[in-house]
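Researcher: Re-running this chain for the archive, since the previous output was lost when a drive failed. Same request as before.
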Amino acid sequence: MWVDRFKGDPDQSTVWFCVKRPGPSAIKEGISWDVARQQEKDFFTQKLPWCSFIGTNKQRLGTENLTVHLSDVLSGLISKRFVIDIA
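Model: Regenerated C-alpha cells:
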C-alpha cells in the first residue's frame, strides 16, 4: 500500500517522502543521529522494493532528501514573502 501511495500520480499536488526511523529499542539504547541515518541509507539501498526505485522516486527516500526538499520549499516561500528590491 505505501509503495503505491509513494509512487502515486506524478500530477498530484502532494509530494510523498519515505523515511526510516529507528525502532523503539534502538531509541531506548540511545542510537546516535549518524548511526540512524546510516541505517536508513542502508535500508533504502538494500531492501526491496525501495532499492529498485529510480529517478524522482529514489530522490524522495530518506531523511536527507526530505530535509533538502523542505529547505528548498522554505527558501522559496521566504523569497516570495520578502522580496528585496536592489535598485
